[in-house]
Amino acid sequence: MLERQEGGNGLDSRNADTYILLLMLEKGKAFPAEGSDEQIDLLELILAAWNRRKIIVAVSFLGMALAGVYGFLIASPVYESSALLLPTQSSSIPEGLGAAAALLGKKNAAVGDVDLYQSLLTSRTVLRKLLKASIPNRNDTAQGRIEGIAKIYGIDTLAPKEVDRAIHRFGNSILVGSKESGLGGILEVRFQAETPWLAKEIGDKVLEIGQEEICVVRTQRADIILAKLAFAVQQAKAEWDSATATSTRYQESHRSITSPEQRLDISRLETENAAKEQKYLMARREYELLQLEKAKATPPMLLLDSASTPIYKIKPKRTILLAVGLLIGFIISLVYAIGSAAIKHLRNSHPSLARLAQPKQTLPSSQSTPP
To answer: Higher pLDDT residue, 122 or 91?
Structure first.
């Protein structure tokens, strides 16, 4: 049960409206029944908002002005450059060699290439090399002087935390996606930076480093598979030689084959020898195809269109910011107008509650009363 404070001046005037609402909620009269005289009419709320239209308009434009200050003066502009590339594809490997092809990065679906290049271009290995790389500084003061990317951005490469933040920022600014419908395997790589020339130069450098890195990765994977296949080829060759030697020795020890058992044995040995030969030839063919595929993996991607120089900013979206600021200001001012009208209506409907919120009048002391 809410009670008035005794003594002093009672409730603070700033808490009067809150006290009235809490007391109404306690008495169950904050939300009068429909049709009663105490119910706030919707028309009254609309009229209250109309009467405070100047405040609503002023606060709405204030919100839009604050959003404009952020969009035009505070927010850093972002430009986006894009490049088109085609991952090298080859149909020389049959479907039966899918494991080797997968380890070489060969995927039939464009989604696989998107995941591969997104992971590669945003990997810490590529981004660390990007920080150490140098590009032409085309701002007004440098005039094309070759400088390191870390120096251009003011990054201390000896500070691990600062390097990690830079890597995270660069990783978020690189996006890989399929071009339009994704047919043909063409990928679109987008790069974001604070200036148009920086977006283009960083895009070209990322693709260059990514080209080298994916070539190294595919070559290493191919070398591992080739080593395993070479061992399999040697083993298959040894089994074939063993089967051939066994068949030759049997024929030399049985120069006159007359019995059905001997014919059956020589037929079995010849069949086994032919099977071992086919196994060896298949392993050798797979080994040679993989060597050919390793050679074709360089370059791993064809650059169809180098990074473009952006003309327009993609961020901040100032029109959207202004609209959102105007909307937020309108909502805040409307809530204030309707809320103050509702408080005033409750005061008029319940004068006794309003009096409870008034400061308590203290009686004068007996010493100050006249005789």
So the answer is: 122
**Residues 45/341, Cβ–Cβ less than 8 Å:** yes
pLDDT by residue (tens digit) across 260-315?
888 888 888 889 989 999 999 999 999 998 888 777 656 667 888 888 889 888 88
Q: What tokens appear for 345 in the block?
A: 């209506």
Q: Which of 27, 20, 31 is closest to 1 using CA atoms? A: 27
Q: Is 187 exposed, middle or buried (0-12, 13-18, 19+ CB in 10 A)?
A: buried
Looking at residue 105, what is its pLDDT? Answer: 45
Q: Are 210 and 133 in contact (CB under 8 A)?
A: no
Encode burial over 19-31: b for 16+ CB neighbours within 10 A, e otherwise. Answer: bbeebbeeeebee
Tell me: pLDDT of 15 over 70: no
Contacts of 1 (CB under 8 A, 6+ apart): 26
Closest CA to 26 of 45, 1, 47, 55: 1
CB 85, CB 187: distance < 8 Å: yes
* Separation in Å, CA 96 to CA 89, 100, 221, 232, 285: 17, 9, 18, 16, 12
C-alpha–C-alpha distance, residues 7 and 274, integer Å: 112
Report yes or no: 78 and 315 within 8 Å, Cβ to Cβ: yes
What are the two backbone dihedrals, phi and then psi, of residue 192, each rounded to the nearest 5 degrees?
-120, 140
For 156-198, write each residue's pLDDT tens digit.
Answer: 989 999 999 999 999 999 998 877 655 567 888 999 999 999 9
Could you give the count of Cα atoms lying within 13 Å of 225 in the half-sphere of its Cβ?
A: 25
Neighbours of 10 (CB within 10 A): 18
Tell me the domains of the chain and their CATH numbers: 41-75+317-358 (no CATH), 76-315 (3.30.1890)
If DSSP codes are grouped into helix, strand and coil, which group holds residue 315?
A: strand
